[in-house]
Write a structure and sequence with these properties.
This protein is an alpha/beta fold and 254 residues long. Helix content is 40%, strand content 15%. The longest helix is centred in the last third of the chain and has 17 residues. The protein starts with a strand and ends with a helix. Bound molecules: adenosine-5'-triphosphate and magnesium ion. The site of adenosine-5'-triphosphate (ATP) has 18 residues, from helix 1 and helix 10.
């Protein structure tokens, strides 16, 4: 059975898409079978792999209009369940479905083809994000070590707790991943030491963190992960380091 991981933060621009793309590519390099799911109408993950406005996509799948296999596209040796720019129209219809929070879990329950399934969430806690938490075993919260980064974190934790109690007993916070980290700034270090004093969260910080790296920003313009675009870069090193820590803590045995 696949490990299903939701990458979630209701704040925009916190590195969700970058993490799904490059954690996925790192797991692929480690010889795991990977599915990436784009649940965001911005379609940044799909575009980052040069999948533009596909006919078959996650919205069609969740509404039962397209069989699972037919909705997948291949990119860099991974399978991708892409999104489209009018996904909001689908979300509107999904909101009228009975059991609307369970649609993703239902479709993923039918596949046994993957080791890891990574879900890229939109920057909101609407029905699609809740679907990802209902389907997932773990969730990862990427955030920048910057002022106000923690505002909103409580809300994500509270919502996840409700999902766990009401809909998905298996759900666990895998951890908080710091991205765009600048080791030299005192500020970044202060934020991390601050969180390390919080009793609940101190065990929930990944040791690995992702440094600021222009290659992570440039790679999507070429339709690539950082492992294809700049395999010797800091970004590739950091995401591989993170993938190894993730597999060690929560992963599947091969
Ligand atoms: N470690 C990094 N170094 C440099 N740039 C980064 C890094 N991580 C992410 N970025 C850049 O920061 C921006 C936001 O990242 P990303 O798109 O992954 O965030 P997001 O949480 O998915 O955003 P949204 O909420 O809009 O979906 C992008 O331009 C991305 O290329
Ligand atoms: Mg995104």
């Amino acid at each position: 059975m696949a490990k299903i991981i939701s990458v979630i933060n209701n704040k925009g621009g916190t590195g969700k898409t970058t993490t799904v793309l490059n954690l996925g590519a790192a797991l692929k390099q480690l010889k795991y079978k990977v599915l990436l799911i784009d649940l965001d109408g911005q379609s940044n993950l799909s575009r980052a792999l040069h999948i533009n406005e596909p006919k078959n996509h996650v919205g069609e799948l969740l509404l039962g209009k397209c069989p699972f296999e037919a909705c997948l596209t291949e990119a860099e040796g991974m399978d991708v369940l892409p999104s489209v720019s009018n996904l909001l129209d689908y979300e509107y219809l999904i909101n009228n479905e009975p059991g609307r929070e369970f649609l993703l879990r239902e479709v993923l329950g039918k596949t046994n083809s993957f080791d890891y399934i990574l879900i890229d969430c939109p920057p909101s806690m609407g029905t699609l994000s809740i679907n990802s938490l209902v389907a997932a075993h773990h969730y990862i919260v990427p955030m920048q070590a910057e002022n106000f980064a923690f505002i909103g974190l409580d809300r994500i934790l509270q919502i996840a707790e409700k999902v766990k109690t009401r809909m998905n007993m298996d759900l666990e916070l895998a951890g908080i991943l710091f991205v765009k980290y600048q080791t030299r700034t005192k500020f970044g270090q202060a934020v991390i030491s601050n969180i390390a004093q919080n009793n609940y969260l101190k065990n929930k910080l990944f040791n690995a963190y992702i440094r600021q790296d222009i290659n992570l920003m440039e790679a999507p313009a070429f339709g690539q992960s950082v492992f294809e675009y700049a395999p010797a870069s800091r970004g590739a090193f950091d995401y591989m380091n993170f993938a190894k820590e993730f597999v060690k803590r929560y992963g599947k045995k091969k």
